[in-house]
C-alpha cells in the first residue's frame, strides 16, 4: 500500500500534556458522594450557611435527576460516580508568586507554559490544580481600577455580597444533573467583577489542571461586567492520560450589564479519559455583547452548549466553536441563543472535524420569544470528516414565537475533497501539505479570533503524520 | 511553423494517448508536441476530451492512461503525482478552480512557491514577486488577503489562475478554457497577462472552445480536437477556418481509430 497522509490532532498529547507528577494533597476526601461529604467540603472551606444550603439543594437535585437520555447514553451511563474523588486540596495555601507554589506543581505549570504566557501577554492568571487554586495574580493597575479577579472560594470570603447576589442566578441548582452536581461540590474557579466603564485590555486567564487519578474537578466561575465594561477571559485545561476516567463538570455564569462586553475563550484539551460535562450560560442586558469562543480538542465525551440570554434591547450573542473528535472521542457541542428582547442578534458558527471513529454533534437551540421584534439569528454548522468511519450529526432546534424576525440556518458536511486536494497538489504541495492546508483553512474562522499565542498553539496541535506502509 | 527545440526532446510530447475515466475511454490516440517558446491552441467542441487531456497532463488520479504516453522533457510522466509534475515545471490553469476557504491567496502562493522550488522562499523576495505580478495584471494588492477562490466571480477566478502561473513561473503551462465566462474587458486583461508570460523558455497549451481568445493571443499552432483525437493541425489560420465552418466541418475528415 502506498504511504497515506493523515491529519492528526493531539498526536503529541502524552508527551506534552499527558504526564503526571506524584500526587500530593493536604486533604483528600474518600471517593464517592453523600450528604456528609457535601457538608464536609463546605465546613472545611468555612462557608456561610446560605452556601451550604445551596450545596445541599444541588446535591438533592443531582441525586433525583435522571441521567440525560440523549447525546451519548452509553458513555454517560458508564460514569462510575462512586469511584470519583470529589475533593482534593493539594496545598495549604494559594501562592501569589510562582515561588510560593510547591515545586512539582510549579514544574507542571512550567511545562504547560503558563508562567511564560503570563509574562508575555496576560493581565492576570489563576492556576487551579485538582480542587483548589494554587496560584493567583493580577496586574496592579487593574486592581487600582477596581477590577476584582479572584478564585471563587476567596471571592465568597472577600466579596460575599456580590457573590450572593449573582451566584446561581443564571444556572440554578436544578438546571440539569451536572449543574446540580457542580453546585453541591464546587471548588475553585474564577470570580471576576469589572467596574462600570473599565476596559481590561489584556486577557485574564485561568488554567485548570487535573493530576490525580479518578479525579473530579468542579470549578465554578462567575463573571460580572458592569455597565460599559469590557473583559476577555481565557481558560485552558489539560490532564494526564490514565486508563481510568476522570470527571470535569464546571458551571460558568456570565453577566453582561448594559453595554458591557464579555469574551470568553476556552481551549479544552482534556486527556481522552476525561468526561467533560459543563454548563455555560450568559445574560446580556441592553446593548451588551457576549461572545463564547469554544475550542474542544480533548476529552472522552464533551457535552457543552454555551448559551446567551439576550434580555435587553440590542443585546448581541455569539458562539464560535471548533470541535475535534479523534478515535474514541465524542464531542457533543453546540449553542443556545434566547432572544427575549427586541433588536437582539445572535450568531452561531460551529466547525467540527472528525477522524477515526470519532463523533461530532452540533446541538443547538435558537428561541425567539414573542415581542422580540427584529431579532436576527444566523446559524452555520460546518462538519469536515477525514475518513469514512467518522461521524457527524446536526441537531438544530428553532423555536420562533415572533413574526418579525430574520433567521438563517446553513449546514454543510464535507469530506476533504479530491478536487481540493488535486488543485493544491497541482500547485506543488504534497498530499500531506495539501490536507493540512485545507484543515487549517477550515478552522481559520476560529483561529483568527484567538490571541496569537493560542492560535499558534492550536495550529500546532493539529498536525500531520504519515501512515506508512508495512515493511 | 514548429521551431527547432534547443533540447533534444520537445518540452511536451503526447504520443498515442488513450485515457479512460471510470472505465469509459475519452482520449483515443491523441498525439501532440509542444516546444519551448511555442503557443499551441487546442480547440474542440464540448465533450471532445479537452479537459480530460488537461487533467491527465497534470496527473489527476481519476484519469487512467490505458495506452500511449506523455513525455515532459523526454521523461515519461505516468505514475508521477500532481505535485511532482508541478515541481518539474508544469502548470495547469483550471477551467473551474476550486475554493479553499480559510486559506489566503498569499499563504497559498507561498506554499506553492515553496513546493515548486523545493525550499523556503524569503519573505521579502516573495512579497516583491507577488507585488510585481499583481501590478502587471492590474489586480489590487488586497486581493491576496482573500481566501482562495472563495466566493469569487468567474473573472476573479481566472485572474487568480494567471497570477499563480506568473508567480510559479512554469516551463509548461496548460490553460483550460481560461477565456470561458469572461466578459470582453476581463478577456483582454487575461489575454494580456498570458501574452506577458510568453517567453522563449516557456511552452503554452491554450485549450479553448471559441476562437475569440485567439484574437488576442496569436498561436504558433492550432489543433482541432474531435472525439478524443486531433482531427487537424495547422497554423493560426486554422482557427479562422474553424470559426467559419464550425466543428461539424471537421468531423467527416476523421478516420476510424486504427487500434
Short précis:
Chain A is α/β, with parallel strands linked by helices and 471 residues long. Chain A has 13 helices and 27 strands. The model of chain A is unreliable at 465-471 (pLDDT under 50).
What does this structure look like?
The complex is a heterodimer of chains A (471) and B (259). Chain A has 471 residues and is α/β, with parallel strands linked by helices. Chain A has helices spanning 13-16, 35-44, 49-64, 73-77, 103-111, 114-121, 140-144, 152-158, 160-166, 177-185, 418-425, 431-447, 452-461, and strands at residues 4-9, 27-28, 88-89, 124-129, 132-138, 148-151, 190-194, 204-209, 216-217, 220-225, 230-238, 246-248, 251-256, 261-268, 274-277, 279-284, 289-296, 301-304, 307-310, 316-325, 330-339, 345-354, 359-368, 375-385, 391-400, 405-415, 462-467. In chain A, the strands form four sheets. In chain A, strands 6, 7, 9, 10, 12, 13, 15, 16, 18, 19, 21, 23 and 25 form a 13-stranded mixed β-sheet that branches. Helices cover 24% and strands 37% of the residues of chain A. Chain A has a domain at 22-304. The model of chain A is unreliable at 465-471 (pLDDT under 50). The longest helix of chain A is centred in the C-terminal third of the chain and has 17 residues, at 431-447. Chain B has 259 residues and is of the alpha/beta class. Chain B has one domain (12-250): Rossmann fold (3-Layer(aba) Sandwich), CATH 3.40.50. Chain B has seven helices and twelve strands. Chain B has helices at residues 50-58, 82-87, 105-117, 123-136, 154-168, 184-196, 237-245; strands at residues 12-21, 24-34, 39-43, 63-72, 75-76, 90-93, 100-104, 147-148, 172-176, 203-208, 221-226, 229-234. In chain B, the strands form three sheets. In chain B, strands 6-9-10-3-11-12 form a six-stranded mixed β-sheet, sandwiched between helices. A four-stranded antiparallel β-sheet of chain B has the order 2-1-4-5. In chain B, α5 runs parallel beside α6 (184-196). The model of chain B is unreliable at 1-6 (pLDDT under 50). The interface between A and B is medium-sized, with 24 and 34 residues.
